[in-house]
Amino acid sequence: MTKIWKETGFVENDPWVIETDEVKVTGEQKPLLGLDELIAKAGESNAVGLGVLIKPADDVRRLEPYLSRLDIVAVAFPAFNDGRAFSHASLLRQRLGYTNELRAVGDVLIDQVPLMLRVGIDSFSVSNATALKRLAENRLPAIPHHYQPAVRDAEAGKGYSWRRQAKPAA
């Protein structure tokens, strides 16, 4: 079972669906289009409220002309050891200025959620049983200190925590 989680809790009746041969959009649901499919649809119409699924090998910069027309960008984590979606999320938030919903889909594990939050991902499609249980209990792993800045500031505030001034010699 897959559930959508945000920091406010689990989301009921999320409309976004990744279509497959077995799963098709019905009723009030909306499709998460592949990058090429989104660009083709955006070129044919002035549609807004679109959603796109970015796969690891996609060039997320191709979305730039269409960002204002997107309600959601989903970045795919096909395996726990494939972190290219972290780079996609960071690029979307920091360089391209994307401000709408950014969702992690695929192999979303509880240990990665705090890091995903730091790069600007704000919703999660979760099917891992351990992750679902811990999210339901509001038990995220804590990472108190960070070595570099991110989209989301560390609890200590902005800045580069790794830039320390040496004390002058006595």
TrEMBL record:
Annotated InterPro entries: UCP030820
According to UniProt, the name of this protein is DUF934 domain-containing protein
Organism of this sequence: Rhizobium phaseoli
